[in-house]
Amino acid sequence: MESNQIQKESTTSLGSEISKLIKSNVVSHNIAKLVQSAQPVNPSFLYLPTQEGSRSLADTPTIPEEVYNKLPEILRRGSYMFDNSRDKDVFLTGALTILSGCMNSVDGLYDSQEVYANLNCFIIAPPASGKGKLVYAKMLGDSYHEKLLNESERALRQYSASLRESETANQATQGNVQERPPFNILFIPGNSSSSAVIKHLKEGDAKGIFCETEADTLSNSLKQDWGNFSDLFRKAFHHESVSYSRKTNNEFYEIRKPRLSVALSGTPSQVRAFIPSAEDGLFSRFIFYAFNAAPVWRSVAPVEGRQDLTSHFAQLSERVLAMVEYLEDSPSAFHLTNQQWSTLNDTFTMWLKEVHGYFEGDASSIVKRLGLILFRIAMIMTCLRKYEQNSKDLNITCTDEDFNLAFELVKVYKEHALTMYAKLPKAVNIQDKTIADLYNELPARFKREEAIEIGKKAHLSVRVIDKYLSMLMTTNQLTKSKYAQYLKVEKQ
Question: Helix 338-358 crosses helix 364-388 at what angle (to 10 degrees)?
Fold first, then answer.
């Protein structure tokens, strides 16, 4: 809002100066000189949505066509199956995320920390707007998923057969009980509990992909276990260790360097169910692509001479599997050039200043994490080139062309993220000192009875305590788990 006022005042000042010159009969070339000397309006500012989120989802930018012309083969062949620009963008954004979850043998250093290619994306549009094209992006990982699933099922059958033989030979009683083999898959079901997800990651060597074309599938799980899911997604984005403990059977799991990718599509209301506040730490860890397209009937008749989408992406899926196996046989370290690092640092310094000046709240975290997203997209592009070129290099360096492709994509994703940031509710600061004091006394996890006990020490009635808890839930300061526990929402 402040920057809008600055722009308005600047324009008004320039207009009044020109009016004075006209009234004083100053010749036209002097007026032209004054106009030319005026500071140009920052073009990136013109592209930013306002604080009120007035930019319509129908006005969000699309990915430039020249980006598609320069993509690596797998992405280019997939994108060219769609004529509509929104359909292309949905597929490409999803495809980058799915491929990021398949490239586990390549890493790089970003901010002096080892990172992998994993991305998260959320495609947002009203019903029947085309966001379902994410399903074709998911198909890219089908052959890899089926390979892992078949290997896991085969190992489990062999284990069961061996166990029966052992029991027949009475070996089990002699301490020769075999350990069940891990059940490894690529796509983790969206309706899994957080404990089941941890188990999948444990058995899958800390790797996995969530891909749901209806975000409600995952949101329903979140409602039951929001605190654990939110913690998992936030930590996995930075490959931080995740642990899970449960009294039943004395279970304890610890996942080191989780490599989790998440691809979702849904309506604007489903976004709010998944990420209640724009200032939730989960928001800035996602690529957003949001749009609203007018309903148009398109021909559903077969096109003579054109391969159907199912067959086309089944073939591309085999190509992705071959790439995964190739990269696993030839692990690599990914690098940017010194000039690319300089460009990244200079550009993001400028973007950070812009966003911090134009937006209230924590929008700067979007820019900060977009830097890592840019690095990961460049890594994905470079891995695809390595496979295409049949390279066995242990160190792979991003070309300027692929770095520029990644930058063009991130420019678009920045605008979409800021549009969604302006539209989602912000976390409300606790203004009332009594509520703030109660909140500060509460532990990270607590039950209503504990809150009542703490509140009574401050001479608060049960009715008032319940009211305050409800207000803290409404302002996204608290959430609730399926175990009737309140959880403080951590801001990152």
Answer: 150
Q: What is the pLDDT of residues 417-456, one digit of tens each?
A: 999 998 887 655 555 677 877 888 888 889 999 999 999 9
Question: 48-141+186-294+305-426 sits in which CATH class?
Answer: alpha beta
| Residue 397 φ/ψ, nearest 5 degrees | -115, 135
Question: pLDDT tens for residues 26-58?
Answer: 444 443 443 344 433 333 333 344 344 446 888
Cross-strand bridge partners of residue 50: none
- CATH 1.10.10 for the 433-488 domain, yes or no: yes
Closest to 261 (Cα-Cα) out of 467, 100, 370, 389: 100
pLDDT in tens, 320-349: 999 999 999 999 999 999 999 999 999 999
Helix, strand, coil share (%) of the chain residues, nearest 5:
55, 10, 30
Q: Please give the C-alpha separations between residue 4 and each of 9, 40, 45, 178, 363, in angstroms, as whole numbers.
A: 9, 14, 9, 69, 17
Distance, in Å, from the CA atom of 243 to the CA atom of 231, rounded to the nearest integer, reads 10
Q: Annotate 80-90 with b (16+ C-beta within 10 A) or e (fewer).
A: ebbeeebbbbb
Return the exposure string of 234-262: e unless at least 16 CB atoms fall within 10 Å of the residue's CB, then b: bbbbbbeebebeeeeeeeeeebebbbbbb
Residue 248 gets which letter from DSSP?
G
Cα R_g (the chain), whole angstroms: 26
Measured distance CA(468)–CA(435) in Å, rounded: 6
DSSP secondary structure letters along 328-339: HHS-EEEE--HH
Q: Where are the domains of the chain?
A: 2-41, 48-141+186-294+305-426, 433-488
* Long-range contacts of residues 152-160, Cβ cutoff 8 Å, at least 24 apart: 152/181, 152/182, 152/183, 152/184, 152/185, 155/181, 156/180, 156/181, 156/183
Instruction: Band the pLDDT of 88: cuts 50, 70, 90.
Output: very high
Q: In what order do the strands lie in the sheet with 113-115?
A: 113-115, 106-110, 332-335, 395-397
- Return all residues near 469 (Cβ < 8 A) that are at least 6 apart: 448, 451, 478, 486
pLDDT of residue 431: 57
Residue with tokens 């404990």: 195
- pLDDT per residue over 240-296, tens digit each? 998 877 766 777 888 999 999 999 999 888 888 788 777 778 899 999 999 998 888
Query: How many helices (H) and strands (E) would you count in the chain?
Result: 18, 13
Element (H, E) at 478: strand 478-480
Give Cα 315 to chain centroid, integer Å: 27
Burial class (CB in 10 A: 0-12, 13-18, 19+), 473: middle
* Segment 456-482 mean pLDDT: 83
Q: Which residue has the tokens 């980006």?
A: 67
